[in-house]
Amino acid sequence: MEFKDNDLDEILRTHLQKDEKVDIYKPRVLANIVNGVVNFKATWSWWAFFGTWGFFLYRKMYLAAVIIFLLSFSGFGFILMILSGVTAFYFYTKKLEKDLQIAGYNQREFSQVLESLKNLGGYHSWVIWLAVIFNVIFLLSFIFSLGLFLGIAEGMTIQ
Predict the structure, then answer these.
(1) Helix axes 7-16, 22-31, angle to 10 degrees
(2) Residue 120 Cα to chain centre, angstroms
(3) Number of domains into which the chain is organized
(4) Which range marks the domain in which residue 78 is found?
(5) pLDDT per position as a tens digit, 124-138
(6) N or C: fewer beta carbons within 10 Å in the chain?
């Protein structure tokens, strides 16, 4: 994945649909591209660390979101948080590469590519609310379960 001139700034601005995020994403995307090929390079995203599956769903990386969501019930939550934080920009770079191929980068007019990237990229703002609701339900379930456990444990005495 090679970029002409200063296309990357405009590509990221259009794909992310948040101008203020370009300076955050650009060095991390470039770190994951070696000689025009996307390769894994460990970077860090606090958003992905705390948001895990929510980050990936927010950025329209559906398969990663589903896998991380399902794995979050396995008991390896903290490990998944670390893996999400370390791999987030790599997976974003892979998505960007795929979206650029679909948009016809280097084959179509740049304005047409940018128009396609508007549809392929972006984010789902509703994911933030979904994650909040899910985490509140999870927290209430945990508190309820803990209350039940403590109530049962309180009734048990050693005779």
Answers:
(1) 120
(2) 15
(3) 1
(4) 7-124
(5) 999 989 988 988 888
(6) C
